[in-house]
Amino acid sequence: MRTELGQGRSRRGSLKWALILLALTSALIAAVEIAVFADGDAFGPVWVNVLYAGAGLTYVTAGLVGWWRRPSNGLGVIMVFGGVSWLIVSLSSFEIPALAALAVVLATLPLAVVVHLVMAFPSGRLRSRARRWTVAFGYFVCLVLEIPLYVFAPAASSNGILAAGDHPHLATVGGWIQRGAGASCVVVAVALLGAQLRRATSAQRRVLGPLYFYGLGAVLFVPVAPDVIQPLTGLSNNAIGALQVAVLIGVPLAFVAGMLLGGFARAGEIQELGAWLGANASARPSLQRALANALGDDSVRLAYWVAKRGVYIDGRGRQIELPGPGSGRAHVTIELERRCIGAIVYDAVLIADSELVAAAGRVVAIALDRERLTADLLASREALRRSRDRVLRAGDRERRRIARNLHDGLQVKLVLLALESQRLAGQAGATPAIAEAAVALRAHIDLAAAELRELVHDVMPAPLIERGLGAATRDLVDRMPVPTRLDLGVNGMLPEPVSTAAYFVVAEALTNAVKHAQASSLSVRLTHHEGALTIEVSDDGIGGVAAGDGLGLRSLADRIDVLGGRLRIDSPDGQGTQIVAELPCES
To answer: Would you list the domain boundaries of the chain?
Structure first.
């Protein structure tokens, strides 16, 4: 880790000096140009020539700032290249033929640079073949289709050094071809960027929309201004030229602002994570929130790697999948001591520079590993809860199966035996002894059937299976030997695990009250509200019940915990008992 940090500082230092050298060189070139303009050795008004040089310095400065703040992002390089092209175009006013000719050849290159800048925002890379072809065509329009304008028009060819002859009609045709091709290039760019905006979120559109509109609008404004703005306003050629330059000067300023301050990944703010690590744990925001603030992406999510299971989980311990290609989302994996501990999932449009996300991950790797252990513990707990839930559901299914078999099988056989014994007792010719034995057998069978019904009811009551929790609770209350008030706020059928758990809470609480509480009255209340079922059972007995008393209450607490519910027992000595259970329930 120390070696990597040392290498990172070394690379940062080398870049710093390279950018300083580039800045000084550009400033020197601009200063020489301005000095030549001021000395009167150039064609045209001084202020127009200075404005061109100023445009070059603006592009270079914006590019150097972006390059320094976002080294792995190509936008800074593109803007610096645009600034250099402006400085070259400024040479068109020089009396030196070779320099002036070079300026004429590259006269419209800044427009292609703006198209390149727009198409590459925010990552600095041309991500699709369509974008690469569009940008390449833009450079073709500005460099190749520009040739007829200075080859066939000596007046536009810097003292005619590049002219092949004076053929104004060919220059005019070439100009129209160039404008048409340029317009088609902009139309294709608008279509590509429009498709991106449709896929973007509202937050992304607020940044991308104005930048795209301004960049392409500036490209269109330059060729349109002489033919539309000048006739309407009557401005001079120099004024129109100055207006064109002023519009284009705003492009790098807008894009560098969007690159650094517009909600896209900001390398300078990674240092905020260091302050987050040093803050008091109780006062600082969550790690995910801190990463979102530092990266400028509210959609940032953390995924924690569980090596023993080979899966990623979220902060609640739930298994998640990392985003795939074409989803608009991306991720970087974070390692600590050469082992994977997790991943940062982010918006691939807002944050196109994955190295910045990786840098943020390296800063908070230790904190991420700590949260990974917590998430792993939660995942283990969740897995245990699901396992217990499966056991509980399997047990309830077995209860229902046994209850049905006893009710539909053995109980029916006992009824048939009772009828047969009654037939034998009343059969003609039966001796008194046989008749008496048959009557006694009938009595024993009836007693066995009654005990079987009680057993079936204890295993899984038929009303609960057939008619739901409300009917089963009402049947249970009706059989209580102590006056019991019922407030039933449940309508319809509830999920089987919930209704079964609620029924056994009521049954266990009422049974304990009758057996141990010496209560003179009982109360049962069921309410279903906002996705939760609340069961309240109260008595006016002697109290003194604790949550760990008896196997029945402990098993109820386990059942409720498996379902994600809560059990509360309020039982002060001499003041009765209230048992309250809350179960999550989406009916």
So the answer is: 2-261, 268-383, 386-459, 467-584
